[in-house]
Amino acid sequence: MRFGNAEFLSKVNLIKALIFKVILFFVAFGVMISNAATATTIVIIDDAKNTVTLKRPAQRVATLAPFLTELVFAADAAKHLVGVSAYSDYPAAAKVLPVVADYQGVAMESLLAAKPDLVLAWQSGNRPQDIARISSLGIPIVQFELKNLTDISRAITVIAQLTGVSTQPEAVQDFNLRLTALVNAQKITNPQSTAPRKIRYFLPIERMPLMTLSGAHIVSKALAVCGGENIFANAAALAPVVDKEGIVAGKPEIIFVSATQAGREAMRAPLGDGLAKLPVPAIENNHIFGLNPDWLMRPTPRMLGAVESACAAMNTVRAAPN
Fold first, then answer.
1. Which residues contact 121 (CB under 8 A, 6 or more apart)?
2. What's the pTM value of the predicted model, to 2 decimals?
3. What CA–CA distance (Å, rounded) separates 191 from 315?
4. Nearest-5° angle of CA 112, CA 94, CA 40?
5. Cβ-based neighbour number of residue 248 at 10 Å
6. CA angle 198, 202, 204 (to 5 degrees)
7. Which of 34, 54, 205, 280 could tie 42 with a disulfide, CB 3.0–4.6 Å?
8. Are 241 and 205 in contact (CB under 8 A)?
9. Could you read off the pLDDT of 90-149 as tens digits, one per residue?
């Protein structure tokens, strides 16, 4: 069937008109999406129970603790970082970012110069007066207090949502898979019908004064995945000062130290003479193991690496002859 010239031109013009309308539709639809994305209001309740509202996803983010910097990278939101805390050294790209805070507090002049539209803070680690000051300036501030391993993936998800980069960061999926595998590995290694035998441990974090962590700390809860039992779990303070008598009374079967060198004999060095001669099972049986402090003490995906090492150490103690 053939079209006459007039009919043919009519068909062509009709098709052009339809194409034009379709283009207009998608252009308009794209504008609607863009406008909606720009105008999206984000409302969350942070770990300090404060309601924080962002009129749009944050584009300029400052972090006030090294672990928060690492979590921003894990959330694939590093492009939005304009300021970080001192000792933000992982990944390497974090080292070149402007420092706006350290252990003494927030450098307000540096922070304001970075012009953040969102600040991420550590509820129990940053000074309350700094947090209040930032909030009084009208800068949205979200406080984090991670208390268990699952809080790590939650925090990454929240940061991704606050910056509008993703609702399901790949790092969250990877972390959850590793955590599940770790838990399952413990079941395979310790196939008893009940939970594996608990292993009493001591974890010194400072030598002068001698300090450790209580059972409420995320590190203690992470090591509980391995069946670890903190001998100072019931301490009132999150990071209590302890004495040698308390260590002896707790009878730790294993002592973890902040070290990465190989060989358990080398692990005695961080203990010092005062602890290395205590009459406790861990010392008597040379069950002293080093854990990477950056992995262990920062609630980020890397913490699982330290927990995996701790689980392996505890299984070594369980397998040792009584």
1. 64, 65, 68, 130, 131, 134, 141, 142, 143, 144
2. 0.82
3. 12
4. 60
5. 13
6. 155
7. 54
8. no
9. 999 999 999 999 999 999 999 999 999 999 999 999 999 999 999 999 999 999 999 999
